[in-house]
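dumping this here before i forget
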Amino acid sequence: MTGRTAGELAGRSPVRSVLGSAAMLLVATTAWSASGRVVGPDDGPLQGASVCVLVAPNTVGLCTETDEQGFYSLPASGAPGIRVTAEGFLGQDIAAVDHEAPIRLERAASFELRVIDDADGAPVAGASVWIVSADGRRRGPIDLPGSGWLRMSTFPAGTYRFVVEASGHAQRGTPEIRLVPGGRELAEVRMVRVNPGEPPTSS
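structure:
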């Protein structure tokens, strides 16, 4: 009896241990992970989309990429959310849970804005750009680099105009420009100099 009991203990303890560990791992995986499937506007899978845990507003931590079918899975326990992005698409911040419904990303618009001096065609150093939507909402100011170019490859589609301000120049703007999903627009603003010492004026 003693030998049999010892034999049973010797044979079953490892099994109990393995099964117990597997059960704990399953519970941990279920509770600590977030998963889903990322698709485009046509419901086709988006391979290579970036999926990152948000550890704080606008701060990402652990990241992964979607597979060829658009699926992802990553640990996300206690995270405030997950950020999904893909080149050429508008990103989304979603809940850090298992998503049964596909996560659909819409195609983004893109544009390039060039700001130059009207007199000599040189880039205007220190120019600031406001992006004004059709309903009057303003984004900015955005400070331009020394090259005078503002490039955005992921921007919501819509109708906008660009207003540019720079020291020593009159304020200038563009007509309304329609940005379409998947399209790219090129705009140019030629800044006119004002007399030295005078503040910029509206034109």
